Amino acid sequence: MTHLDWRKEADFMVATQIESRGVRDKHVLAAMKRVPRHLFVFPEYISLAYFDAPLPIGKNQTISQPYMVARMTELLRVSKGMSVLEVGTGSGYQAAILAEMGASVVSLERIEFLAQRAEEVLSQLGYSVMVVVADGRQGYAPKAPYDGILVTAAADIVEEPWQEQLAMGGRIVLPLSIEPGLQRLLVMEKKGEGLWLENWYDYCRFVPVVSGISKQEIHENNDT
Length: 224
Ligand code: SAH
What we know:
Layout: H1 3-19, H2 26-34, E1 55-58, E2 61-63, H3 66-76, E3 83-87, H4 93-100, E4 104-109, H5 112-124, E5 130-133, E6 146-151, H6 160-165, E7 166-179, E8 182-192, E9 195-204
Parallel strand pairs: 3-4, 3-6, 4-5, 6-7
Antiparallel strand pairs: 1-2, 7-8, 8-9
Helix pairs in contact: 1-2, 1-3
The chain binds S-adenosyl-L-homocysteine.
């Protein structure tokens, strides 16, 4: 894909899938146009990279649908210099969008293979994201508190460490399971000790949050 091609595809993606569905944050729209999404997928999926769909990234995981990335980023209200914890690095694409918007990002991934690949692409593109192989259900205390926490896998509960590691006034955006196989985006804003403002948004389908970490050889059976 040439530079011009992907720029055109990214512009078209933003116009037809993201703006058209009501995402208004100019910085989100600009970041979605600037980050080369095709570099976060396997070569065989490059021609589908800007389609309106999630795509496989190996290890039974997916890069989220572009609209969902934009929507969650908008709900997080990202601004320059904000510190963000992402749970579920996956391809690294969502982390790149946050970094492109000037956030300082720590991203947690339980599957070492995915974390390593994401880290490679992110650093090639010049994004300084701290990718950590860890069980994201524990959050990441060393860099807390965070101004925002974005969970990009389906959660059954809002884990205590996320609540504790969020700064006052900060927001957690996550897909919370409401029935098997179906989640709804929840935004929780920390208003005071034990005082949260909650709002519900889109219905969605994410791969689940799974406990523990998975360390595997990079070269074995990458696409399962
Ligand atoms: N944000 C990603 C998409 C995430 S898919 C992107 O932009 O591509 C969800 C990811 O969450 C998967 O990679 C999965 O391995 C990871 N995950 C699931 N449970 C986790 C946990 N407990 N801790 C860290 N990562 C987890």
